[in-house]
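Milestone 3.1: sequence recovery, worked example.
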């Protein structure tokens, strides 16, 4: 269970604050609902408290999890496929959408990394560009809140992993000053 004013992650949509806990009568039964107000969108949703796991709502990631995704981004991407045709995009897109719905930060990070790898080999399609933007936005939002840095700085940090592949990047989300630091070796 979560508490009032706690920040949570709603898969595919980003970080939301539990603004109220509401009781409503539905089909003759009283159910408890969390009212979630999204931080980066003018959107509010009600989620039954007994459905949280099914929806995929989770706590914000830890600094350690953020560091893990930075480590993943600093590693070379595994080859996605030599066949980057439209039919293969449809298959990859289904997999990507499933991963997005899971809300798992590592899976979202893998999508982001894969799409950057694909962009090095061909121009991204409209759908791929949209997905890249969505994953970047989801990652940056959570990183900025967990590490207490601005969203722009989080985006810049994410993009820095793909500027030059021969650099080694070490990312530190310091729990003392809660900021991002990058050291290029």
């Amino acid at each position: 269970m979560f508490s009032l004013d706690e920040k949570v992650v709603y898969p595919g949509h980003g970080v939301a604050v539990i603004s109220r806990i509401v009781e409503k009568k539905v089909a003759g039964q009283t159910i408890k609902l969390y009212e979630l107000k999204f931080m980066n969108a003018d959107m509010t949703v009600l989620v039954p408290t007994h459905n949280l796991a099914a929806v995929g709502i989770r706590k914000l990631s830890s600094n350690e999890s953020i560091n893990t995704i930075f480590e993943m981004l600093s590693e070379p991407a595994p080859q996605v496929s030599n066949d980057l045709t439209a039919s293969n995009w449809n298959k990859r897109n289904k997999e990507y959408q499933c991963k997005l719905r899971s809300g798992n930060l590592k899976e979202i990070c893998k999508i982001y990394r894969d799409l950057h790898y694909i962009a090095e080999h061909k121009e991204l399609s409209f759908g791929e560009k949209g997905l890249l933007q969505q994953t970047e936005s989801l990652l940056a939002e959570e990183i900025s809140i967990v590490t207490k840095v601005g969203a722009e700085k989080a985006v810049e940090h994410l993009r820095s992993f793909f500027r030059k592949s021969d650099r080694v990047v070490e990312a530190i989300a310091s729990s003392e000053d809660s900021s991002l630091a990058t050291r290029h070796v």
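The first helix runs from residue 52 to 55. The CA atoms of residues 14 and 171 lie 22 Å apart.
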